[in-house]
Amino acid sequence: MVHYRPNGLDTARLGVVVAKKLAKRANVRNLVKRIAREIFRRQRIAIPAMDLVVRLNAPVAKATRAELNLDLLSLLQRLPRQ
Fold first, then answer.
1. Residue 61 confidence (pLDDT)
2. Which residues contact 68 (CB under 8 A, 6 or more apart)?
3. How far apart are the C-alpha atoms of 48 and 63, rounded to whole Å?
4. Which residues 6+ apart lie within 8 Å of 4 measured at CB?
5. CA distances from 82 to 49, 50, 52 (A)
6. Residue 32 pLDDT > 70, yes or no?
7. Which residue, among 68, 60, 53, 54, has the nearest Cα to 21 in the 3D structure?
8. Is domain 2-77 given the CATH code 3.40.50.11710 in the classification?
């Protein structure tokens, strides 16, 4: 899930929230955060000036890295362009 709001700056900013309830192990929570930051870093130029908060809303125990990458990429591409 991505929450967004225009920020009035020149660039986009990112926050990532991964709850222990959805990812029990610290290494899984860190993996999700690393993937989110890397996808954001690659797409930052194409994202309008917004504050984004990426929030995990489903357990990721059986998700692969490729699935996480694709899910986050599709979420960022659905953001409104200004």
1. 82
2. 31, 32, 35, 60
3. 29
4. 50, 51, 52, 53, 79
5. 9, 10, 15
6. yes
7. 60
8. no
Q: Which of 71, 81, 82, 62 has the alpha carbon at shortest distance from 1?
A: 71
What six digits make up the tokens of 82?
Answer: 């200004």
**Strands, sheet with 2-6, edge to edge from the N-terminal-most edge strand:** 2-6, 50-55, 13-17
Instruction: For residue 38, give the H/E element and its range.
Output: helix 26-43
pLDDT of residue 63: 86
pLDDT 10s digits, 36-78: 999 999 999 889 899 999 999 889 888 899 999 999 999 999 9
Name the burial class of residue 73, with classes exposed (0-12), middle (13-18) and buried (19+) by CB atoms within 10 angstroms of its CB: middle
Residue spans of the domains in the chain: they are 2-77
The two three-digit tokens of residue 56, written as one number: 């995990």
What is the per-residue pLDDT for 66?
A: 94
